[in-house]
Amino acid sequence: MELKDKYIRREGWLSIFGNIFLFGLKYWAGLATGSLALIADAWHTLSDSVSSVIVLIGGKISRKPADDDHPFGHGRAEHISAIIIGVLLAIVAFDFAVGAIEKFGSKEKTTFGTIAWIATIISIIVKEGMSQYAFRGAKKTGSSILKADGWHHRTDALSSVVILIGIAVGNYFWWTDAVLSFIVALMIGWASYEILSKDIKSLLGESPSDEHLIAIREIAQKACRQPIHLHHIHLHNYGNHTELSCHIKLPPEMPLNEAHDICTKIEVALKNKFGYMSTIHPEPITWENPVI
Known about the structure:
mainly alpha, about 10% strand
């Protein structure tokens, strides 16, 4: 947890200061050249600063211990923060798409210069560096909020690459800036979809794969000599930890203390293998309640 907190704090503050600098640089270049694509890219960068503030706040909330109102902790604050970032990206994408369509309709030509080249190249280098740091932190810690912010940086870097290509040919075609603005909007929109689809699913709850269910049953059965017929498996992801609930079937004549020992063995085995905190409900095997 300490490593995760370190990455979230460092990545958040690095993003805030880096993005404010890049916003000023690209916005100035956009005004100097009259490029909607550069101005759109600048606002995209500023939205990264907002998302980084959300990273810091979400990371702080997720670290809070469990309490009476939140008995399973606050880990899902990470998913909520990532969803907020995704929504912000969707709003930015829609706004720039509308602006691109309006500029395409006006047939306004943009003349790019040295300022645009310098600002865009610097942006690509800085943003990709931020993206790599966030992804590295997400890989080491499993943090969804770091991964979401990494995608935010990556889309900004890619949109700058698109703009750089457009600058190279922009003086030859009047529609270049409008098309570039629309492409940037699509890229931002795709990043929004990637973030929202994953974290909404995690927040609502998703079924484990068949392979994972088989692995859970195998680990549980290996911990017991008695057949347990484990079924009705539910996984509940709370960000920092996962709760597992399941049912097992045991002979009705089995003493309570023996059934309790079997449940404890299964809980320990699942904890050691997957890190899950388990709640196990034993059922008697009867003709009305046969094994499955």
